[in-house]
# Entry
Amino acid sequence: MFKKPLWLECVHCQKQYGLEQVRYSCDCGGTLDLKRDLLQLDGEQLKQTWETRWQNRKRGIYDSGVWRYKELIFDVDEQYIVTRQEGNTRLYNAGKAAEYAGIENFLLKHEGENPTGSFKDRGMTCGVTAGKFYSANSVACASTGNTSASMASYAAVAGMESVIFIPEGKIAYGKLAQALAFGGKTLQIKGNFDHAMQLVVEVCRELNIYLLNSINPFRIEGQKAIVFEILQQLDWQVPDWFIIPGGNLGNNSALSKGLQELYQLGIINKIPRIAVIQAAGSAPLANMWKQHTPYEAVQEPETIATAIKIGNPISWEKSLRGLAWSNGVVEDVTEQEIMDAKAMVDAAGIGAEPASCCSVAGARKLVQAGVISRNESVVGILTGNILKDPDAVIGYHQNQLGHLGIKGTYANQPQLILPTVEAVRQALQAG
Ligand SMILES: *Cc1c(COP(=O)(O)O)cnc(C)c1O
Ligand SMILES: [Zn+2]
# Structure
């Protein structure tokens, strides 16, 4: 059973629905939020509960960086919870990437350190838990890669079947490898992500399969824990900015929802600004934002950052609501800017997949534009692991991405030498 008053509410028309039945969207077509009665909660007490759980980390559900915050995730009987102790990711000094962005106080939250290598695990523990609660035997998603890797893993843990819809063309090898390895039934669709997304919604309805894209309101609840954990790591001191990549726009919606709840509970007393960064070739939100035009999907999205190669993001409305609340901004970055920023994140010894590095590329751009000032405190979210997309890394460092218009500006090429000390000496001297 779900405990405490919880209900679903339409982002668009505010119509409310109970949780007795599976539902992903409103009758009006709007996306849904999971809502709770915050008046029943005491902020001070919650902070103490979370602190105690943090200090007493042992095996069990509170060892999860999501379920530690159960009161603001959703309260469900423990028997339903499917967890891989996700979260508990590190918050790094950005080092070289901070210099590159031109920010003195720049931290990077590495969500690529989750069990399957991306933040998707935080949402997936909740989505699969909800699926178990609703007695689902099969789960499905459309995915550019990380959602499928995560879903296949959590479904395997829960003993469910998983069905994956991936777009045709390039999918990062690390992600495809995981999906296959974890036993996901993988269907490649002739079309892009947006086509796969449309299809999976229909398939789930017709074939009674539980849908686990970020349209699923429970997933968003889990992703809120990224910001809960960051703030706990910072002793509840709120930075001036959060910077986050935007694809389907679920994660930044979760970020603002989480912050809003903390603010309403008095756990934080300052509203940080949120910057959402999109790849220029897949930037419906940035287009809308910068040109002050109505929402319009991008028909042929393109970018090397495949995790955010999405032309018709499902959560654009939720995203705008969060941006309005946080006095946020949207920016877009070019392919070259993404890969150069990635080279800096990697060279800092941290490393992340291309989409993640929009956070750093966007930070640099917003500093140069005078939107973020050098002495403001900034936390960037790195969404995925460096090993997810080795092709992009090798392509950049071998300077072989010319066909995509990308130069290996900071390339670190391997060298072939003779097996002699003299050859090594020469190679080292050449720098
Ligand atoms: C899913 C994903 C994103 C985009 O998140 P949205 O919630 O779709 O905006 C960004 N980076 C990585 C690595 C991802 O896996
Ligand atoms: Zn509605």
About this structure: The mean pLDDT is 95. The pocket of zinc ion (ligand 2) is lined by residues 10, 12-13, 15, 26, 28, 30 (CB under 6 Å). Residues 193-207 form the longest helix (15 residues).
